[in-house]
Amino acid sequence: MNNEKQHVYLREWHRQEELAEQMLPMIGQLYRDKNVMMSVYGRSLVNATTIDILKAHRFARMILDDELSVVETFPLLEAICSLDLAPARIDLGRLTVRYLEHEGKVAVEEFVKQELATVNTGRQAILDEPQDVVLYGFGRIGRLLARILIEKAGSGEKLRLRAAVVRKGSEDDLLKRASLLRRDSVHGPFNGIITIDEEENAIIANGNMIRIIYSDSPETVDYTQYGIRNAIVVDNTGKWRDREGLSRHLKANGVSQVLLTAPGKGDIPNIVAGINNNLVQPEEKIYSAASCTTNAIVPVLKALHDRFGVVSGHVETCHSYTNDQNLIDNYHKADRRGRSAPLNMVITETGAAKAVAKVLPELAGKLSGNAIRVPTPNVSLAILNLELDKATDKATLNSYLRSISLDSPLQNQVDYTNSPDVVSSDYVGSRHACIVDSLATIVEGNRCVLYVWYDNEFGYSCQVVRLVQDMAGLEWPTLPQ
After folding, report:
1. Residues spanned by CATH 3.30.360.10 within the chain?
2. Region 251-260 average pLDDT
3. Measured between alpha carbons, how far is 361 from 218 in angstroms, rounded to an integer?
4. Which residues are catalytic?
5. Residue 182, class by beta-carbon neighbours within 10 Å (0-12 exposed, 13-18 middle, 19+ buried)?
6. Which CATH number fits domain 131-262: 1.20.1250.20, 1.10.10.10, 3.40.50.2300, 3.40.50.720?
7. What is the pLDDT of residues 202-236, one digit of tens each?
8. Location of each CATH 3.40.50.720 domain in the chain
9. For residue 63, what pLDDT band results from cuts at 50, 70 and 90?
């Protein structure tokens, strides 16, 4: 009997694996040719592997309390491929569940045609012309932004990464820049092929030509000589954080907007993607994507405040060390940061609690904050100790945050885990702004303590790209509604 079970399990696995393999080119063609992005309950299938597809289906059990199989979704994907679609985001999981509720009363092809009628209008360009993007700086965040933008390039009709501006380091600068993009000690190898074009001084990554432009100041670059026009410049150096400094980018030929990957000072709009995107307006040319910690805590605070009300609280972050710290003890202008980052926990300051007020004005003056730099290279933990306006319990609060992560406008920002064994390294590469660790939640009446993980490099970079898409006017209808 046990041997028979073994064969049954293996046969079923092979069946699902084969269907997932057949889905790969279909998903890829929809994305490249029609700008149609497929997902399963928010888990993207674009550029996925066979195993990624199967895991996305497995994830659906958190919502459905039942398994969702590629056996069920495959016929609907085939029907989708037969349509002449305009750009859209299509949730294959939701579509399949809705179809199964009809219990075979309507043919798959007819059902899909009805559900997707609003986008079954023929292939269209999502923008009048592709949006050029330039990275000013090519460090940790810059190279991760490059990876994400290259991954999302599709047919090249949306965001096009055209260049990275740096200071020349050595005669083999181009080779070294390409090598750093190709290999990453934390995030692993680049998913694709990278070569260099020395004549153009460019990195060729999965067919995307990224010119490496050398300059010591923003205003001296003439992007138009490289065919770059109306570019969004993403300044990931952090060197200029006020309007005066960042406006220097706008003096360069070929630049239309600027985005800072650090908290902006003064009147610069600080935006957390998914929260206050309404501040992206045609008349504004300079934006800040706030900090990684602000992006991590604001979505959860927003969700809690909407449901329970946040009276006051303290935010403590255990943050991975950064390049600003020293590897070994040495002079540093800031207190404590001169001590060896890989060997010590270092108490330092964070402006994240105050920065929350710029994104959520209703929480102004209600939060304090501090930070501890810890000896890990990536993934951080925010601990939210809050007083709520309404009393609740652990099950209710966790259930609410789980629903926020699975089916809400904050689905891309908030993730949720109930695993008893997760640790920080499990979240390297997370595309969410934060992950609520539900088993660590503490609730006593109107007080709660939440533990929120976040990939302070890759997760934050995904938030930055979401904001760039908004600045570019990229909008996809999401179906089924």
Report:
1. 292-459
2. 98
3. 32
4. 292
5. middle
6. 3.40.50.720
7. 999 999 999 999 999 999 999 999 999 999 999 99
8. 131-262
9. confident
Contact 480, 94 (CB under 8 A): yes
Give me the residues paired with residue 442 across strands.
449
Computed over every residue of the chain, the mean pLDDT equals 94
Rounded CA separation 379/429 (Å): 9
SS3 228: coil
Q: Are 182 and 190 in contact (CB under 8 A)?
A: yes
d(CA 316, CA 153): 37
The owner of tokens 């063609």 is 29
Task: Give mean pLDDT, residues 421-441.
Answer: 97
Treating both helix axes as pointing N-terminal to C-terminal, what angle do 140-151 and 173-182 enclose, rounded to 10 degrees?
Answer: 70
Closest CA to 29 of 106, 97, 83, 73: 83
What number of CA atoms fall less than 13 Å from residue 358's CA on the CB side? 22
Interatomic CA distance for residues 477 and 481, integer angstroms: 9
Indicate the burial class of 420 (C-beta count within 10 angstroms; 0-12, 13-18, 19 or more).
Answer: exposed
CATH code of the domain made up of 292-459:
3.30.360.10
CA angle 228, 234, 239 (to 5 degrees): 125
Query: Average pLDDT of 98-110?
Result: 88
> The sheet that has 88-91: what strands, in order across it?
43-44, 36-40, 88-91, 478-479
- Tokens read off for 361: 């004005």
* Whole-structure pTM value: 0.94
How many angstroms separate the Cα of 176 from the Cα of each of 166, 181, 197?
A: 12, 9, 13
The residue whose two tokens read 């005066």 is 244
Task: Compute the C-alpha angle 436/236/158, nearest 5°.
Answer: 80
